Structures are given as structure tokens and as C-alpha cells.
Amino acid sequence: MTFKNRYGITLAADLYQPKNSSGELAAIAVSGPFGAVKEQSSGLYAQTMAERGFVTLAFDPSYTGKAVASRANVASPDINTEDFSAAVDHLGLLPVVDRERIGIIGICGWGGMALNAVAVDKRVKAVVASTMYDMTRVMSKGYNDSVTLEQRTQMLEQMGQQRWQDAKDGAPAYGPVMNELKGGEAQFLVDYHDYYRTLRGFHPRSVNSNGSWTLTTPLSFMNMPLLTYIKEISPRPVLFVHGEKAHSRYFSETAYAAAAERRTDDHPGRQPYRSVRPRGRDSFDRLTAFFTHNLAAK
Q1: Cα-Cα-Cα-Cα dihedral sign, residues 283, 288, 291, 294
Q2: Is the residue at 168 inside a domain?
Q3: Does the structure show a pLDDT above 60 at 119?
Q4: Whole-model pTM above 0.85?
Q5: Which of 3, 4, 129, 298 is the most buried (most CB within 10 A)?
């Protein structure tokens, strides 16, 4: 199915419904990881949560997958935040959904987008950020905030020059194909390759499997911090899920510390996985318990 966001971009989605259900049900919108499509991890989350009694919607964000737009493989913290709210719009119009019982799951880079969306979209009653990345932070500051002001300035100057070239060419330039291994990469990059570039998770429409982002994609991310208003999610609940030894765990820890009324039972790092795909029944049991409690009928 398809639906449009507030900017008029058509998004493609897969809807999952529990078998033999009746009446209005709680619903969950799911997206991510950053650069993935709905047939990959978000579809797995959506299918599994539908098996556990929720109506779920896994969607391709703007400019990726089957989303209809004039440009492909570009991301925006504003537009992609809006994508989540557009998914909530769509779910709330379905006759099988109780619009007062809608939650969202954001995976990887879409974990940060999910938190940003819920901060302003008061219709959402609960949110999960799974193996979260703050894409504005990593693009502007690098991993572990290692980028210096001089390096940031150089990156922005290079992208400014790239804009001249793109304008001259009438089309954006793209980086090298994602997740190719040349040897000596960090383990998390090897893990990405082993999922996205092999039969385990490859999909031809996925940026992470078979493409790359435009060279100027980082521009808006370097100028628009996502989690400025994370405290305004409160008093609605947030569940952070992250691997104890994951390279990206610090994103969840920072967001967790910034969130208002945080609870120790929702602290990230209890699960011993670092994949964007929850492993085993226990992980989905945790998500099911969270949403069953927080999306319960009043």
C-alpha cells in the first residue's frame, strides 16, 4: 500500500494484521535501519509484532525503496521525521486500528528519527528505539564525536563544491556502493556486510545492499540536531534497546540520559546482541510486553 507525507511524497508500505482478529487493535509503525528497505529488518519486526496481536506498518522512508520522489537515495532529518507521523496518519485512518493506541519502532538511524517524531507528535503513545543511531550526531561529529571543527569545515566546503557540480550536471553524484569490504574494517562494518551484502539480508532496492547515498546527504544532518526536544516525549514511555558491547551503544546512553522521567528497567544494554535484527524470543517478548502495557485499551 502507499500513503503520502505532509510534503506530498508517496511512501510505500506493507501492512501486517493478526490472524482471526476482531475489533479495533493497537498499531505500530516501523521503519529502519538507515539505508534499509521494508523487506529487511523493519518487515521482520512488523511481521513478528503482528503475530503477537498488533496491526503493524513497515514503510520505506522518503527517497528510498519504493517511495516515489524525484530523487533517490537521499535522506533528511526533517522529512524522515515527518515520514513517521505520516505513517501514524495512515494507521489512524484504518478501520481495524484504534487511533488512540498507536506506537512506533525506529531501528538504527530511524531510532533517532522515531524519538524526534514522538517529541512533537503527541498522538503516539509509546516508542521503541532499537540499536539507535543519532544520524545528526554521527554525520556532524563522526563516531565517538571524533571530528574536529577543522575537519567539519573541510567536509562542508567539499559538499558546497559538490553542490556546484550537481547543479551543473542536473543530477546528484553518489558515493561508492555501501558495505563493500576491502580488508581491515572494524567488526561492525563486517557485520553490516554479512547482513546487507549476502543472501541473509540482500535486497536490490536497499541503499545498504545495492547502492549509496548522494554525496551531499550529510548537509542537513550536520545542521539540525535531532534530539533537541527529547524531554517532551514524557510522560509517554520510551524503551531503548541496545547491545551491551555494540559500537553504537553510546547513542542510546546519551538519549536515555537526556530523556525525562527515565526508568532503570528500560535501560539499554540488557540484550547481548548488536545486530539490527532481534535475536530470539526474549527480545521480542520485551517489545511485546512494553507495547501491550503502554498501548492497552483504556
Answers
A1: negative
A2: no
A3: yes
A4: yes
A5: 129
DSSP 8: S
Q: Would residue 113 count as lying in a domain? A: yes
- Dump pLDDT digits (tens) for 5-46: 999 999 999 999 999 888 999 999 999 999 999 999 999 999
Burial of 269 (C-beta count, 10 Å sphere; 0-12/13-18/19+): middle
The x, y and z cell numbers of residue 231, run together, are 524531554
- Amino acid occupying residue 224: M
β-pair partners for 202 = none
pLDDT, tens only, 251-261: 999 999 999 86
What amino acid is encoded at 133 in this protein? Y
Structural domain includes residue 139: no
Report how many domains make up the chain: 1
Cell of 62: 522518503
Q: Identify which of 50, 37, 38 has the alpha carbon closest to the alpha carbon of residue 14.
A: 38
Q: How far is CA 239 from the centre of its chain?
A: 14
CATH of the domain at 108: 3.40.50.1820
Which region holds residue 131: left if phi is over 0, alpha if psi is between -120 and 50, else beta? left
> Closest Cα partner for 80 from 221, 254, 215?
221
State how far the Cα of 254 lies from the Cα of 248, in Å rounded to an integer. 11
Task: In whole angstroms, give the CA distance from residue 204 to residue 37.
Answer: 9
Burial label for 184, CB within 10 Å (0-12, 13-18, 19+), is exposed
Closest CA to 18 of 56, 45, 50, 58: 50
Lookup result for grid cell 527517497: 63
- Domain assignment of residue 122, given as a range: 2-134+226-294
Contact 254, 226 (CB under 8 A): no
In a domain, 170, yes or no: no
- In DSSP terms, which residues pair with 15 in a beta bridge? 57
DSSP label of 265: G
